[in-house]
Amino acid sequence: MAGRAAGLDHQERPVQAADRRLPVHPAADALRRQHRDRPVRLRFLRVGHAPALAGVVDPALAGTQLGGREGVGDGPRRLGRRSGDLHAHGRPSEEDRLMAILAGKLRTTADDQDQPIDRDHRLVPEPGQDQDQDHDQDRSARADQPTIGQRLACAEAQVADADFVAALQTLTELAAAELPSSSSGDFQRFILLLARVLRALSRYDAARDVLQLARHSTLTASRAAAEEAEIAWIQHDYDRGAEAATYALRANLANRKAEIALRRCRQPITPSLADAPTGGVGHVAFYVSEGGNFGDVALPVSVRESIEHVAGQTDWLPIHAHQVFDEARLELVNGQRSLIIGGGGLFLPDTSPNGNSGWQWNVPAELLNRIEVPISVFAVGFNLFTGQRFRGDLFTRNLLALTERAQLIGLRNHGSMAAVRAMLPERLHERVRFVPCPTTITEHIHPGLPPARSGTGVVLLNAAFDRAERRFGDGYAAFLEQIHRFAQRVRAAGAELRLAAHLPADEKLADDLDSSYGVRLPIDPLYDRTLDQGYAIYRAASVVVGMRGHATMIPFGLGTPVLSIVSHPKLRFFCEDIGRPDWAFDADDPRLGSLLADRVIDILGTEDAYRADIARLQLGLKEHIDAAARDAAVLPGPQDVSRASAGSPPGVAVRRPTAG
């Protein structure tokens, strides 16, 4: 379609010839060839009142729909609308200011379009002007200012530390001082990072609008569309999410994030109101997709098995913790007899962060307070790494509101209990109880397990690499050397050493041992196995040495001897809770290899004694889990309902179970 016929008018925007690496419109390319030795202007196209870069978006496509979505050029116009809407809805001033800056700077005006840009994507005077003095002063002034790259690196570090409010402020200051040129890689880096921050603050519509600006780059189009699909899924907008995920996959068939989002949108975990049970148990959990972390696959199953072990068969209403808990979910939950949240390390600020609660359950306080059924937090962990913390007071406020409403805050270790109680008034401390992870008693609650196999000589090793900087600091090379020494000794003792991978990323340890020391480990990819197949692998081992929490708790619950490599406090907490602190070994211990090898060799020689010890320890944990399960299930019947009502906070009505 012709530009005039489409209602497009041309405006100019200067671009330095150094940007020739970008695909450009033929007219702009001709201009560049004509003016090789001085800055030239690259034409912009306006779609309505929003510019789109002609060097990336062809004029014939600038006003078209992308996969049924708004055209790239519509992004700044939508940002303008969004910036005007934010203040009316009481959104934070930093976001309001940033969106206004983006809308204004991307909606170029005739005044600022007459200024060329230098090789650093900075405005410079027109050729022929007296430039030297002004240019020298400009360079001197900006020498004291952080560069675009430094500001972006600062915001990325703040995001890694889950300080999203500070990251938004940093990005706002960057945009106000010097928005990266849309032809630079820093612009796409800025846009994707900004969208991530807005999403983490639950500014979902604003994040989607920003992601539209990344659609014009072939390098980031698939990634941006996958992010849009995830946000749509979080908001239960499944049609839009499937559409964006499909677009992302067409641009990059290997985009696993888009593949997962598409599957989630096509097969939502929560049933519709017409198909949902009534009088059952709502279950908020992290329901992982196919190929996800093996420990997270086991968790929801184990929680339900522990409840049904004492309450009998139960109708379950699954609710994904990472999706917004909205009016529709509230209505579904209030039709059940109780709500269970857990298990797993849900008290964590940087896994699927949100601005509604500050932890993994994405529940706004207003809707949390309207839940009418008894609430039980079940076997959840305060899952922060050493040195990590919750920023601001959002989590503390939500935790207080949750504890006021809940009949039970069941935490999986005493370390988590101490941390949570420290955030609560003393009057609520008694609601915080020890509820071990039910994976630790799998032998007692999971039917159909294969017989335990003692004496196989199989040693399973697990490592974790998420948040590697927190796990290893700068000591990974030393850790790898210790694991090499461990492998040499264990193999020399006649054991079969294998790697148990809960995620594909765990296989890095095998790759690094091979490349650095020529040691090859067979791999058991548990992430690619069914739950029962994974259980069978752990059940057949003589000992498991795990770095992930559930690479210790799951085999323990299956009766297999375990040792823990501690790169997160939860592993030491578990070993202390069962009275076996000597089963925990620090990842940065310079004697790690020899200490682990000594203990593994000891276990191989006395395996049956270790298994008998674990059987006794399981029974002690089972008492706590069974008691919490009876409370959480809120068994149908007058006696149980009265008990649930008596345990509820004053002034909070408890909905009686309905028939069925």
Automatic annotation (TrEMBL):
Residues 338-567 form the Polysaccharide pyruvyl transferase domain. Keywords: Transferase. Residues 63-95, 107-145, 638-660 are annotated as: Disordered. Residues 71-95, 132-142 have a biased composition (Basic and acidic residues). It comes from Microlunatus elymi. Signal peptide: none annotated. GO terms for molecular function: transferase activity. This is Polysaccharide pyruvyl transferase family protein.
